[in-house]
Amino acid sequence: MQGIHLASGHLLIEAAIAHDFFADNSHVNLVYYSQRKTILLAAPNDELFKSLHKTSMVMLKQKNSHGDRSVSIQEIMIDNDIEPTDRVLTFQADSTMKIIIIYF
């Protein structure tokens, strides 16, 4: 797997990306902006991110032995009528700010 995929209502994040941005954290801060149709993800210890956005802390689960990780976004998809088709997602990984922006 490369990049970030949507599969069965979950964001699947490639191991290298997950490690660079979230290390060994078991949670991430997440916010969805319906106007821009984007999800922003940041590590749970990013106080600036939390102060700038109305975030939710969600579980970041280990997906497989390769180190890929997953985040459930089923509720966001239902509430915002996001197309549920499994697919590769366009994203921007800002390594300076340690934020991942995912576009739907």
What this model shows, in words?
- With 104 residues, the chain is α+β, with helices and mostly antiparallel strands.
- The protein has one domain (4-103).
- The chain is 19% helix and 41% strand.
- The chain is built from 3 helices and 9 strands, in the order ββαββαβββαββ.
- It has helices at residues 15-22, 47-52, 74-79; strands spanning 4-7, 10-13, 27-33, 38-42, 56-59, 61-62, 69-72, 87-94, 99-103.
- Strands 5-3-4-9-8-1-2-7-6 form a 9-stranded antiparallel sheet.
- The model has no long low-confidence stretch (mean pLDDT 96).
Mean pLDDT across residues: 96
- Give the strand content: 35-45%
Compute the CA-based radius of gyration: 13 Å
Structural class of the secondary structure composition?
Answer: alpha+beta
Series of secondary-structure elements, N-terminal to C-terminal:
EEHEEHEEEHEE
Say what oligomer this is.
Answer: single chain
Strand order of the largest sheet: 5-3-4-9-8-1-2-7-6
Largest sheet: 9 strands, antiparallel
- Helix fraction bin: 10-25%
* Through-space gap between termini: 19 Å
Based on CA inertia axes, which overall geometry fits? globular
- Low-pLDDT regions: none
Q: How many H/I helical runs?
A: 3
How many domains, in number, for the residues? 1
Q: Care to count the β-strands?
A: 9
